[in-house]
Specification:
Length: 207
Amino acid sequence: IGVQHEVMSEWLKSIIIDRDLTSGTLMKHLALWGTIQSQGLDAVVWSLVHEMRVSLIFPFILFAVKRYTWRSLLGFWLLSIVCTLWSLDTTGSVILGYQEETFIKSFLDTGFFIVFFAAGAYLAIERQKVARKIVGLPKLMQICLFLAVAYCLLKSDYDIHTFMGSTVDFMRGAGAVGLIALALGVKTFSHALTHGVLIWLDRKSVV
């Protein structure tokens, strides 16, 4: 506390406003405040902020998904769109998750991310049904699905100052859902994921 922190990458300098740790910043950091000023101690905490908030309401999300299935995802998706359009209107940028200057606005970010947690809950609940549908697809359709998933996950060109900036995030979410669905329904792909090289990479990434 009180020490000046100047040794960091140019990228970190661009996303962290308050790089000098104060007592107030430390308390907000520990409280998972969610503003850009409170993340100077460890910038990657921004994702934990939203994960912890969503975990508090996850029983509600799970209840909605179990009762309304895919229709609940549409509702959460609409919530996500409203949040990012609100952010675009007030800040000139779509939601990124780590650049809000006020505690209240950071909750817009959390609202934006809820749909991705709901999609994961849906896959967990309906995994058997999803697997059967994937298995029932012709091989050509499975290959096309692989290509579509790859495109969604690898697409990176976007402008955060237009709604298309959020569209890319929605595409990545859809790509993640598709990838898990393929792992559930395509045995060849599922077995490939247990290959020794991938397991080694997994262990190294955790370390």
